Amino acid sequence: MNTQGRPTAPGTSSSGNGIETYTGNRGLRLEEPLIFELDNPGACGVDLDEPEAFTPRLGTLARKGSIGLPGISEPDVMRHYVRLSRKNYSIDAGLYPLGSCTMKHNPRLNEKMARVAGFSDVHPLQPQKTVQGALELIDTLAHWLKVLTGLPAVAMSPKAGAHGELCGMMAIRAALEARGEGATRTRVLVPESAHGTNPATAALLGYKVDAIPATEEGRVDLAAFKAKLGPDVAAIMLTNPNTCGLFERDIIAIADAVHEAGAYFYCDGANFNAIVGRVRPGDLGVDAMHINLHKTFSTPHGGGGPGAGPVVLSEALAPFAPLPYVVHGAEGFRLVETAKEARADGTQPFGRMVSFHGQMGMFVRATAYMMSHGSDGLRQVAEDAVLNANYVLASLKNDLSAPFEGPCMHEALFDDRFLKGTGVETLDFAKAMIDEGYHPMTMYFPLVVHGALLIEPTETESKKTLDQFIGTLKHLAKAAKGNDKELFTGAPHFAPRHRLDETLAARNPVLRWQPPVPAQAAE
Predict the structure, then answer these.
(1) For residues 252 and 220, is the Cβ–Cβ distance under 8 A?
(2) 248 in Cβ contact with 286 (< 8 Å)
(3) N or C, which terminus of the chain has less Cβ within 10 Å?
């Protein structure tokens, strides 16, 4: 834990009317040291027999000292991690308003299905004849992704959204190379309202990124876009709905112009939750689009995973989809694993993205989500997500400040104009939300809006929950305008730890725990 500049130490929280406790605990809000600080030499959670005599083969590389792991009993290990888990905020604890992240309730049915034997314990090196059910599920999921997007092919193996972007752009590069234009089409157009991973992906592949400005309405400037088209353009990477929570209404005109210029249209599908069942990207002229299964089709993606980012591809790009992929023949399902097999199948894969076949747990969850909702239910997902976001926008636009006129899509965007002259900044406002028991919304993104506050309520929150959230933000906005500055600059007051001095913490990071130096040695 980085303690640089931390105004409060364990047990010195400002809450509790100044009453101190012997343990530093506050009721069920328990203090928890680092696991290394719990070290009890000689303690162990497992009893192991002494190994039989053996001849070491490490030579001079054999370890000569302790590896430095703490000695802890099993109950203490269990309690340590349970106590840490209580400090986490989660979608199971309350509303998670992060914009552009789709942190919605994860149905327990999906979790149950993912734990079914044969799915949960499937191994990528099993003989294919022993995993026919798993391959059929992958094939079924791929079918419905194609149906929902109106595109004829899908690469299932990418492990996340950015990984899917990379896959789609590599397919585009392969298609251009097959046309003999790989060396001449070196530029990728990226709107300012796109996700930040879009320009990063293009740059990673060696393309020159050319930004397209946004209009005052928060959408792609169509005239500026057309002016940037040329024979050196490989693709456009556009997010729709975009990061301002708005649908790009000129998307068909954009697709037509891109194709007329001989380039391809990559669409960032991270916000598919707003249009699933309502709009088919293939009908809009999209050539490639990744789909975050872990956002649109269950499993909130906080905590670093797991994720899955299948990429749907147009007819022009389908032959270049990466290995492996599932085919169904007279002998059942099998994986096409080699370029030789693929060429015999009539395709030209650009290679492969991962060692094996994708994220099986996510495939199961997404399939369960789709089958339990049905086509009408998936359509309602988008409708309710958009309804909830517009309810938040309409309810708060007179208390906060919205940079663009509504209606919005699945997320409501605000800027920091409502805080002007108060001495309170976006970060202070977000920290005060922690005291109210809320995880803050996405801050300072998208970059096209100053001091941005981006809220995505998703379709799974009730009106009662949203009303309380809206009331909280109204209260905080009123307090900020009422010059109650200490409420914000000192926040969070009731969290286990107070705010860090972020500048000092960044310049003097504590990245590794070291045992305290004995007092005599320090002298």
Answers:
(1) no
(2) no
(3) C
Give the pLDDT confidence of 277-308 residue by residue, as tens digits: 999 999 999 999 999 999 999 876 655 567 89
The residue length of the chain stands at 523
pLDDT for position 29:
77
Report helix, strand or coil for 356.
coil
Q: How far apart are CA 284 and CA 289, in angstroms?
A: 12
The SS3 assignment for 471 reads helix
Q: Are 160 and 317 in contact (CB under 8 A)?
A: no
> Is residue 20 within 8 Å of residue 11, measured between CB atoms?
yes
Q: Which amino acid is at 468?
A: Q
> Quick check: 521 pLDDT over 70?
no
Angle of CA points 280, 281, 284, to nearest 5°: 105
Number of Cβ within a 10 Å radius of residue 494: 16
How many angstroms separate the CA atoms of 508 and 502, rounded?
Answer: 10
Prior bond to 324 cis, omega within 30? yes
pLDDT class for 313, splitting at 50, 70, 90? very high
Give the per-residue pLDDT at 520: 62
The structure's pTM equals 0.89
Cβ–Cβ under 8 Å, residues 238 and 220: yes
Beta strands across the sheet bearing 442-443: 412-414, 453-455, 442-443
Reported confidence tier of residue 392, pLDDT bands at 50, 70, 90: very high
CB 14 within 8 A of CB 435: no
Q: Which two tokens stand for residue 301?
A: 């993606």
